[in-house]
């Protein structure tokens, strides 16, 4: 009689399931409009991340995406492959991948920055490398600080 061994805690960790990863990328939205199409894509990703125990913080501003997402190593690798495969027209640029001890975000957070004076403070004052908001000109440290500053604000919305 052949018996199947139940997985031990160590065998469950063979693919890095016990390691949490933070991955941050920037992208230019050239494919999705700012209305229904974008809303559908965001809802799709909110569900996908929730189903795969990934948390995220996303800033949308002036056609750019700045997103940090956190989860297990296999989940983040799979999500990255899916993003590259399904959304290659946004040209995502990875700016940072780190192992982390704990998740920084809670759920699927989204902040849409507008040209308002309040939002301009986030985008331009301390983090941008020029007079216009362009995350491609920001260092990885500036981008991480930018995300932290945006989501420290209690007005951040959970999608």
From TrEMBL:
<dbReference type="InterPro" id="IPR036046">
    <property type="entry name" value="Acylphosphatase-like_dom_sf"/>
</dbReference>
<protein>
    <submittedName>
        <fullName>BLUF domain-containing protein</fullName>
    </submittedName>
</protein>
<dbReference type="Pfam" id="PF04940">
    <property type="entry name" value="BLUF"/>
</dbReference>
<feature type="domain" description="BLUF">
    <location>
        <begin position="20"/>
        <end position="111"/>
    </location>
</feature>
<dbReference type="InterPro" id="IPR007024">
    <property type="entry name" value="BLUF_domain"/>
</dbReference>
């Amino acid at each position: 009689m052949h018996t199947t061994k139940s997985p031990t805690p160590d065998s469950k960790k063979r693919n890095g399931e016990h390691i949490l990863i933070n991955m941050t990328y920037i992208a230019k939205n050239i494919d999705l409009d700012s209305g229904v199409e974008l809303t559908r894509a965001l809802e799709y990703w909110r569900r996908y991340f929730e189903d795969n125990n990934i948390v995220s913080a996303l800033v949308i501003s002036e056609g750019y995406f700045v997103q940090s997402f956190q989860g297990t190593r296999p989940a983040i690798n799979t999500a990255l492959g899916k993003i590259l495969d399904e959304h290659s027209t946004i040209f995502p640029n990875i700016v940072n991948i780190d192992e982390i001890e704990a998740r920084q975000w809670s759920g699927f957070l989204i902040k849409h920055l507008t040209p308002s004076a309040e939002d301009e403070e986030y985008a331009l004052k301390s983090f941008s490398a020029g007079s216009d908001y362009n995350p491609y000109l920001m260092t990885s440290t500036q981008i991480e600080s930018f995300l932290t500053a945006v989501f420290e604000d209690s007005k951040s919305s959970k999608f």
